[in-house]
Amino acid sequence: MSQLEHLAKRVLETGGSEVERALREELRRVSEPEELRKLAEGFYAEPEVSVPTFERLLELTPEDLVVRVELGFVYFLMGEDGEANRQLEKARALDPEHVQVLSLEAALARDSAKKIRLYRRILQKDPQHEVARSKLHELGALPSGNGTIP
Question: Residue 91 domain-assigned?
């Protein structure tokens, strides 16, 4: 187990600002994006670890659209829609039609009609996109039979 993983587990087990500060300091020492990606993916559902990890990763790779969207989704899952929308805007500036950008935008949309439009755009770009297909079905906009885009 790496020092980063050890600190990440300590943050989750004990919490506290001292351990969180130690994690942030260790994250600042890492200059290899792949190491940070691995940590962020492994602790995705743990915002105490994933948020500072994604933030450090964005310091190293500010144009990484996927990392920006992933951070946006973490904020969305935390109920911090304002932060999620800030990440969405930055990702949208990089590629407004990227499937993952559209997915975050759809997740944050409050209006069902807008969600449906976004999920349909996603399926036009990626007809096998299971989340978009599932969400359209939940919204009553995709029949369960043939699975074609209405």
Answer: no
Query: Whole-angstrom Cα distance, residue 14 to residue 6?
Result: 12
Model confidence, pTM: 0.90
Whether 26 maps to a domain, the answer reads: yes
The phi, psi pair for 145, rounded to 5°, reads -65, -85
User: Contact, 73 vs 107, CB < 8 A?
Assistant: yes
Convert 2-29 to b/e letters by CB count within 10 Å (16 or more is b).
Answer: eebeebbebbeeeeeeebbeebeebbee
**Residue 146's pLDDT band (boundaries 50, 70, 90)?**
very low
The number of distinct structural domains making up the chain is 1
CA distance 116 to 139: 7
